[in-house]
């Protein structure tokens, strides 16, 4: 039966709700190993992408640009081309259903598709990792290291040292960064880090992270605060046209400009590609021309030999170089951000490389097999359910303790303490120990009774109160003691007990 547009809408909403429930159910399960964590993350990522695709289809249906949804709703009400006729619309739909089942006699109606969706939780997505990456635990930068090692912008260092410096491109001189090999190396490094990050952290929104990095970079680039590129405009010749060593807006005549001196005028002319020779007045006049006249409109006689006028070839070379430099600086900013996110992985990679340098090939292979077996055993143990029909307490290894040990310690005997809020203690040993624990001490403190040895084995509140009263009577705490309870008042109205008042009077203080 051909699905109507409204049926497609209903099925799409149902699919989105089912996928959302599956995502929640999958994330509630704590993965046992790193491999399980990767599989879970990729499963959730795939389901989120399905939700997004289905939602886009629903948006297109609700926008109804072709009017198909509006026509279908009208048809349900019997509004046809010939007028309103509910019965004819009903019988047309019934005819369509019968025709469908006549052509497809084996067709069945799916009552519950939950089993098909539950299979998504058992999927193990295929994630490709090289042997050096260790299922996403380590980086594999050997190819990039060889390129760095044999380049002019690199250095002759060990691989372990490269793991420390590859995340710091700002330390490379700007002159070395303007070469084509460095740009290609940077592109390969960025592509690898992005590919590795997408495989190991599929739930992270890399586009949003890069969007924030780009916005922060644009602000820093505008004010010249990008790390490692503070003087990039002068070194790469990408300075703006009106940028010189002298602010021409501060001068209104050539004579005032001559005060700057010949050396400074020469430096300003050289920055603009103009001739730097002549007297100080000629230099000042030549430079003063640029205050009101753009460089592309100046006569070519004012430019130094070997330098081209800006209008030649229809473009200015300086801005193009500036765009390339800015693009390289932006790639460096993205690499630094990815290295910050992968900081723990970089540290693990360095530790693994240093460890492997002390092992032979046979030892490395044995260690790799041991890791695989350990990971499989951990996952198998998690899958197995513990058989404990007697409901014995768990031991230190997470398994039930032996039954003879259970009987030896009397763990089947229950003791209740009213002072502890009717809390149950299993076994004589736990019961005797609880009199010194915080729960019993708090209960005695609430009753206003000191938790001494006299109250051991007493768990009833009433018995504890009666015992405390008898102890007080024996100690004479309820008798009248005039030296402590009889009050005296001095001339200033201060109140003392008899003992304190007598001591102060003997000292002559009152």
From TrEMBL:
Residues 362-384 have a biased composition (Acidic residues). Keywords: Metal-binding, mRNA processing, mRNA splicing, Nucleus, Phosphoprotein, Zinc, Zinc-finger. Pfam families: SDE2_2C, SF3A3, SF3a60_bindingd, SF3a60_Prp9_C. It comes from the Eukaryota. It is found in: Nucleus. Residues 358-384 are annotated as: Disordered. GO terms for biological process: mRNA splicing, via spliceosome. Residues 415-446 form the Matrin-type domain. GO terms for molecular function: RNA binding; zinc ion binding. InterPro entries: Matrin/U1-C_Znf_C2H2, RNA_Proc_DNA_Dmg_Regulator, SDE2/SF3A3_SAP, SF3A3_dom, SF3a60/Prp9_C, SF3a60_bindingd. One of its GO terms (cellular component) is spliceosomal complex. Belongs to the SF3A3 family. This is Splicing factor 3A subunit 3. It comes from Nicotiana sylvestris (Wood tobacco). The gene is LOC104210042.
